Amino acid sequence: MKRLLSALLLLWLAGCHPAPDAPSVAKTPADSGAIIPGAEQLPEYLPLLQGKRVGLLVNQTSLTGNQHLVDVLLANKVNIVSIFAPEHGFRGDHDAGATVSSGIDSKTGIPLLSLYGANKAPSAEQMQALDIVIFDIQDVGVRYYTYISSMHYLMQAAADYNVAMLVLDRPNPNGRYLDGPVLDLAFQSFVGMHPIPLLHGMTVGELAQMIKGERWINQAEQLQLTVVPVANYQRNMRYSLPVPPSPNLPNDQAIALYPSLGFFEATPLSVGRGTPFPFQVLGYDKFSLGEFAFTPVATPGAAMNPPLKDTTAKGQDLRQVNAGGLDLSYLINWQRLFAANNATFFNSPGFMDKLAGGDTLRQQIEQGLSEQQIRASWQNGLEAFAKQRQPYLLYP
């Protein structure tokens, strides 16, 4: 397959041209050193789509240059049968946890099929109408971010119904970190499907290969998986996302803080949902660790009923901190403050355990362990995972 794709690429470079009505997709030559996501390398995968009935799991991040992948493929005469929508919807305008409904895309007339909510996996009827499915969504490299869970369910459906799967890879903005507890499968949920660390340091393409190779789906050997890697990418590179991956991760700072602040969704605190700076602040209305004040309000498409809605919260402004990786000090310090005020910190302990991939982290924090002690308890799991993932890595 690699030889075939290489030959096709050479032909294309020698003078093959798209159809007259195909869009001109801005491409940076691979030898320029610029990062080129898989979706922008059309010669590598268009031949796989010719004459095929195609389904796509995509959202607002699925761009090639400044055009959406759906539009580019349609202009190249690809037969798109259906578009699957993950959490936040096809256009990325749904709040976290909000219902994503099926329907018809108003721009293209293509059926939109929701893979979030009660129906997380495509149906037999939907898959039998396809020859190949494409996954192209920008992830942020944090286990509880649910796009990789949607990818898992699509992989399972592709294996079940003998449909080929193509993953167009994108960089991981948190890819240089390998940190946090490895998920205990007894706590498996949609916010944690795989026995991987909270920060796994892998792209979705690498993770897809691992899901297949480690047989984390049934009938994994039947899955015809192809990954188009990112060109000129190394996992320690800093990568600024051109499009917010979801409504409440609007910028690089929020994405960098998300591994540390996501746990606060299981507490009474606000992380800034319903403000202009979600996942960049921490605050509470009854007592606080700082004097920065903010008031969450209903925000269509981002947070209609945020924690502490219409209530002044006080706490920490993290918009300018040097963020990166997993910082437990926020959890530890706020839990100690709540304990000193005889208040319950983890008011959704079951959800906290799902986010953490087990109940150990919550218990360690409640028992007053230091960050150093907690981190020491992860090391064996991280070392084992680092070896386990090695065969599936695509980038140095």
UniProtKB/TrEMBL annotation:
Peptidoglycan beta-N-acetylmuramidase NamZ C-terminal domain: residues covered: 257-395
Q: Which is an annotated Pfam family here?
A: NamZ_N
**Residue span, Peptidoglycan beta-N-acetylmuramidase NamZ N-terminal domain:** 54-252
Point out the signal peptide segment: 1-21
> Where on the tree of life does the source sit, at the highest rank?
Bacteria
What keywords were assigned to this record? Signal
Tell me which PANTHER family the record gives: HYPOTHETICAL 460 KDA PROTEIN IN FEUA-SIGW INTERGENIC REGION [PRECURSOR], PEPTIDOGLYCAN BETA-N-ACETYLMURAMIDASE NAMZ
Q: What is this protein called?
A: DUF1343 domain-containing protein
The protein's organism comes out as Arsukibacterium indicum
Q: What is the lineage of its organism?
A: Bacteria, Pseudomonadati, Pseudomonadota, Gammaproteobacteria, Chromatiales
